[in-house]
Every structure is written in C-alpha cells, then in structure tokens.
C-alpha cells in the first residue's frame, strides 16, 4: 500500500521515465492493474502505463472497457488530468471492432455528465462525441430518433448500470446534446448545434481542445472586439418609421 500522493507521482512518470528503460516492462502488470482498480485520479493516471502494456506487450485485461466506463463520473470534467484521460479514451475507442452497444453507452454517459460540465470541457467533449459517431455509424440512431425520450424521466438509458451492455443506451437518444444547444455560452450552443447537420467524414482535431482552460475562454471573450453600439436613435413618427409618411396623416401611434 502506497500513500496516495506517492501513487500519483509514480504513475505520472511511469509511462515515459520508467517502462521504456525496463528489460521486462510486464513486471509492472500487477502494480498497474491494482492501481487501475483503486478508482479516482489514480485510475486515470494508471491508464497511461496500461495502454503501453496493452499496445506494445499484448496485455489482456478482462473487463477493461467496463472499468473505463465506470471511471466516467461527474468529476471527470473537472479533474487536473482531464486532458490525459480523454486523449487515452479517444485511443481506446478508436477501434472499429468495438460493438455498437458499448460505444453508445460511452456516448450516452458522456452526454449525461455533460449537463453539469463547465464550458471549456463541453467544447472538447462534443467534438469527441462527434468523432465517435464518425467511427461507429451504427450509433447514429441516437441522433436520428425523432420519437425518442425528451427528458430524463422517459429515458430508457440506465445511468446507474455498471455493465455497458445492460445500460440500454441504444434505445435512447441524445436529448442532452439538444439541451446544450440552449447553453448560456454561445460557443457551446454553436458547437452542440453541429449534430443537427450531417457530420463530415473528417474527424475533428481534439489536440487543441483537451487542455482548454476557463482562463483561455475568458481571455478570448475579453479580447473580442465589440460591435459599435448606437447611442442615439430617431423617434418613430409614422406608421412605417418615415417622417413624411402618408399613413401618418390618417393613422396615429398611441
């Protein structure tokens, strides 16, 4: 048992400062699988090392996607390591061999959690979801279901279900993204409206969005040039706003 702080320090550097210099990186399998099962930030940080073992050393991890699915909780959009997590999640969900029910479960859970996410996270997660639709066209039924549920009470999707195959995500629709089209931040509303149109085949580049911060959004808004605001106006005197309006001779505006 390691202290939480030490766990984090080790896992942050494990994938690039330790594993490449080991003669047998597979010796870290037990350590990483235990760390992945702890939960919270430690599980997020363990993903980096696990990805290397799975990708380069043929590690087979049972119920890997079930565990990855369970990591999606409301804090995922607020944690310090958000960018790293979604970069790896994007890699894990890139395979075209994943079943539609699994990808649909990820899309629904990410969309539901997005209802309470900050704007900087939403500007990243909506393109992330769009990319999943591009890779897995079978999931587009979530968009093109006109008679789907309109609110949480009618939604067949089971948020509390830990098993993605039993979440009934494919029976649902993305009313959450439709709700985000009325978001207070104009950039979020504009980004969410993309799903109203046919998606292009080219995936969105997420590299510049993964580390987007609230400070950067605020700085962008501050630097915008405001449109000229008229300070005077001409009072309407006729029915159609003209001074010598023939209607003004016969009609009056009370």
From TrEMBL:
Membrane-spanning intervals of the chain: 31-54, 85-107
Pfam families named in the record: CBF
GO biological process terms held by the UniProt record: ribosome biogenesis
GO annotations of cellular component type: Noc4p-Nop14p complex; small-subunit processome
Keywords in alphabetical order: Membrane, Transmembrane, Transmembrane helix
Superkingdom of source: Eukaryota
Keyword Transmembrane helix: yes
CCAAT-binding factor domain segment(s): 43-192
Similarity section: Belongs to the CBF/MAK21 family.
Name of protein: NOC4L protein
Organism in which the protein naturally occurs: Pterocles burchelli
């Amino acid at each position: 048992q390691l202290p939480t702080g030490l766990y984090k320090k080790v896992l942050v550097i494990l994938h690039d400062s330790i594993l490449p210099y080991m003669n047998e990186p597979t010796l870290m399998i037990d350590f990483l699988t235990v760390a992945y099962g702890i939960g919270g930030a430690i599980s997020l940080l363990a993903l980096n090392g696990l990805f290397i073992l799975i990708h380069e050393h043929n590690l087979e991890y049972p119920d890997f996607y079930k565990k990855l699915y369970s990591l999606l909780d409301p804090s995922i959009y607020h944690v310090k390591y958000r960018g790293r997590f979604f970069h790896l999640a994007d890699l894990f969900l890139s395979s075209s061999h994943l079943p539609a029910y699994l990808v649909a479960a990820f899309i629904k859970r990410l969309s539901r959690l997005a209802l309470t996410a900050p704007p900087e996270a939403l500007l990243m997660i909506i393109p992330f979801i769009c990319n999943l639709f591009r890779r897995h066209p079978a999931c587009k039924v979530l968009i093109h279901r006109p008679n789907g549920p309109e609110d949480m009470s009618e939604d067949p999707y089971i948020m509390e279900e830990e098993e993605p195959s039993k979440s009934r995500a494919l029976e649902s629709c993305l009313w959450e993204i439709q709700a985000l089209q009325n978001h207070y931040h104009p950039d979020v509303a504009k980004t969410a409206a993309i799903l109203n149109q046919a998606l292009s085949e080219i995936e969105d580049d997420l590299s510049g969005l993964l580390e987007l911060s609230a400070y950067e959004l605020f700085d962008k808004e501050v630097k915008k040039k405001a449109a000229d605001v008229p300070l005077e106006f001409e009072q309407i005197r006729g029915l159609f706003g003209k001074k010598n309006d023939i209607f003004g001779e016969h009609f009056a505006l009370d």
